[in-house]
Recover the amino acids of this structure.
């Protein structure tokens, strides 16, 4: 089911530990940046993931990432991660995310999450969770 949703933004600084020998952000760290962006988006909706796991037994897991590395980020850059919800399925959540330096797009990804039970089985989004996610 398609869900139009405004983009959420979260800003992060690039630290020395995020870079490689060439002084640019190591490619895998973009996945950490977008994970932080999704976590901040969920938090902004009033969802506490620890409470969700403890009370409803639901966790989110990445199923698929399609990523494009466009330009390098460097030490001390201030980056903005934008997260936009694209669709909610029965147990799936689809996003598009970008890492920006000012107006310059450095990284873009499409991400699919699935909802899992404590046992690691796919579970449907609850009505309450669906309502919070769809804003």
């Amino acid at each position: 089911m398609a869900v139009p949703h405004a983009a959420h933004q979260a800003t992060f600084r690039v630290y020395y530990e995020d870079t490689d020998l060439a002084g640019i952000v190591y490619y895998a760290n973009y996945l950490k940046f977008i994970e932080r962006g999704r976590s901040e988006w969920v938090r902004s909706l009033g969802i506490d993931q620890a409470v969700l796991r403890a009370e409803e037994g639901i966790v989110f897991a990445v199923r698929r990432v399609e990523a494009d590395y466009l330009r390098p980020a460097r030490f001390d850059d201030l980056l903005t991660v934008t997260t936009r919800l694209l669709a909610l399925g029965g147990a799936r959540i689809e996003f598009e995310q970008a890492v920006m330096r000012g107006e310059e797009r450095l990284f873009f990804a499409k991400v699919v999450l699935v909802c899992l039970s404590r046992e690691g089985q796919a579970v449907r989004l609850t009505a309450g969770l669906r309502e919070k996610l769809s804003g």
User: Anything to note?
Assistant: The chain has a mean pLDDT of 94. The domain at 8-134 is CATH 3.10.129.10 (Thiol Ester Dehydrase; Chain A). The radius of gyration is 16 Å.
